[in-house]
Design brief:
Length: 145
Amino acid sequence: MKVLLQRCKNAQVTVDGEVTGAIDHGYLLLVGITATDSEKEINYLADKIAGLRLFEDSEGKMNHSIVENGGAILSVSQFTLYADTRKGRRPSFTDAARPEVAKPLWEQFNKVLQEKGFVVETGVFGAMMDVTFTNDGPVTIMLEA
């Protein structure tokens, strides 16, 4: 499982001209699932995301977590995080989980984050999405389990 975390001032997902998820500040999470992922990876990354100290304190040091900062989460399923570009010019996505495996795991990941007390907005699994955001910092971190 891979999560590309981007600290943001705002983020929004639009599908067919309709906003499906939007937050004012917090994290935009691009979430990639592979066929071997399970509840273990979901719980590990949800705990990691909740505990990371990526927001500044009064001295400008990253000492506060999203919990302390009161931020929300926008979660977007992103199978392209598993792109393999080592051969040829067209990426291979064979390491990405099939939709029937990935969708329930992504939904479970979002549920675990909600159970931790976060407001979690989402994109639409499998849809062509327009994702817009203002990266804060910029702070962008790749997390893997």
